[in-house]
């Protein structure tokens, strides 16, 4: 019931110069609906922003974990590289040791070959027997036997050392080569893990960059919604102000009309009294010509055009489709500094702000002949009016400029039959109104 009363209270019937001007709550209801739609979109975008931030936090946590793993892997790689360097140093030392062993083996090989050759040339065991039989005494025999045993023992020792050295060389070579192979394999595995972690980190950074870009788009969408809401809220206030202004104007004219009628009635009464007095005189005097009828009150002056051309210059682009899409207004350009832009009609400034697309921009709400109109003045160099301000037709708003998404000094002028909305569904060709 309250809603019906509110809507009814917004429907005003204004008598101006004998005409009835009516304004319904349809425009305000349309603004309310669009505000509700924007609230839903804003809520959705905020939810998307929350999800985006959570995903960014998760991605950053993954990047931190990967970075920690990379640090550990890097340390392990450094350790393995150090171990490999040490092993290579061991191998280098071993090569020297092997060279010494191989030299000793070669010398033993030579000595053994000489022994074998001597034994072969001297008859082997026969030579040993002749040595013993050639002894001069038993003591000499014993000495010769001990000497022969020592020689045989030395030969046996040489053979055992020879075999031992060969085994050591083979064993050390095998151990060091195996250790080096294991270290190299481990290093290769760690390098592979590092490459994998780097690839994961790169992918997470790419995802984070994508999320940052998405966040920027959501932020721009939210800013766009906030700007639309600000315009709608300002328009709502401006429409109410315009209706109130029109009502005050109607009441003022009504008072003026009442005063005019009262003055006319008083003049008529005075004229009647004068005529009555003259009639009394004529009753005692010869008949005279009747007095002329009073002159009719002058008709009210014809009002000027409802909307005036907002600036000077040439029309460089008209309303309608053009390359790049629909052009919802007309562009008017004139070279030189200080080309004034003025209000096309009296009204209330709904918005005076800077837009990324429109640059310095002013939106004015008008109530003309019972209809709400909105005019838009974009790309101005400066703005001389503020929101909520009442302006008259021809009042200075600023100068033609090149601000926002513009390519040269001009005024982009739009007219909307009703309120402005982002879809610009109320846009009309301004030229029939201002020419």
Automatic annotation (TrEMBL):
Coiled-coil regions listed in the entry: 84-111
Region Disordered, annotated ranges? 32-58, 250-303
Signal sequence, start to end: 1-25
* Ranges of Low complexity composition bias in the record: 261-288
User: InterPro entries from the xrefs?
Assistant: Cell_wall_metabolism_enzyme (IPR050570), Dup_hybrid_motif (IPR011055), M23ase_b-sheet_dom (IPR016047), PcsB_CC (IPR057309)
Q: Which Gene3D superfamilies match?
A: 6.10.250.3150, Glucose Permease (Domain IIA) (2.70.70.10)
Alphabetically sorted, this entry's keywords are: Coiled coil, Hydrolase, Signal
Compositional bias, Pro residues, is annotated for: 289-299
Every Peptidoglycan hydrolase PcsB coiled-coil domain range: 98-172
Q: Where is the composition biased (Basic and acidic residues)?
A: 33-53, 250-260
One Gene Ontology term of the molecular function aspect: hydrolase activity
Q: Which domain of life is it from?
A: Bacteria
Domain M23ase beta-sheet core as annotated: residue spans: 326-420
Name of the protein this chain belongs to:
Murein hydrolase activator EnvC family protein
Q: Which organism is it from?
A: Fictibacillus iocasae
